Amino acid sequence: MSFDYHAVAGDYQYHALHSGHPMQRFWHGGKLTMIDQLLRPHLNADSRLLEIGCGAGNLLLQASVRGSFPVALDLSMQALSFVRSRLTEAVTSEEGPRGFASTQAIGEHLPLADESFDCVILSEVIEHLETPQISIKEAARVLRPGGRLLITTPNYRSFWPLMEWVVDRLNMAPKMGGEQHISRFHPANLRQLLSSLGLGIEYFGTIYNLSPFMSLVSAEGAKRQLASELKSASSLGMILVAVAVKI
Fold it and tell me: With b meaning 16 or more CB within 10 Å and e meaning fewer, what string describes 28-43?
């Protein structure tokens, strides 16, 4: 592995969401909208949630409905320390989770029991792995029957390679092309991988076609465009989004 993930600040995604470049803020905020539409309607006070590669925990906290139990998992202790501070604050809220846990581990070897979660989030992780099917299989192992696995990853049959190049040149994120991203996905091979592991597909589409560029002009217009992208489930957006169900 040529990229040092421990060099990435544990609060990187949090600050990108709240104080980054306008397109960065929209990019990270749009994923919260994705969580609201695709996961939260299926969660309740008994739900156990896991995010593999949680980073700053933006998605895990967004998915944590009242009374649920989120578990943060990451390789980086910096990230886990930051997420624990956020979850500690969240449990004091009347609308927050009832408790939480965190663990340092990798997706290929989850130190967790079979069929112990109702929802697993694997967002922008599999492109970093030489054998992503192992982590997806592990995620499926810890899901209960009927549980949902949310996967997002760059779509290399879109404008993503151009975006990757621009972001690297402008130093808007830790360097991606050729260092972080070693497995490349497009709609057909991601669908095939999920199906080969015996997972049903509840939702399959993309986000971030025109919406990130619109965010430079109009935040509200970009939000409307993102809602349209989620609804249309097209294959043109820069990020692939799949919700797979354990049968």
Answer: bbbbebbbeebbbebb
Which helix (H) or strand (E) element contains residue 192?
helix 187-196
- The confidence score (pLDDT) of residue 2 equals 44
Q: What's residue 4's pLDDT?
A: 59
Residue-range domain boundaries for the chain: 5-246
Q: For the domain 5-246, what is the CATH code?
A: 3.40.50.150
- The pTM (predicted TM-score) of the whole model is 0.92
What does the alpha-carbon distance between residue 195 and residue 232 come to, in Å, rounded to a whole number? 22
Of residues 134, 113, 104, the one with CA closest to residue 48: 113
Query: Phi first, then psi: what are they for 245, rounded to 5°?
Result: -115, 135
Tokens 């290929």 map to which residue?
108
Residue type, 165: W
pLDDT at residue 179, as a whole number: 62
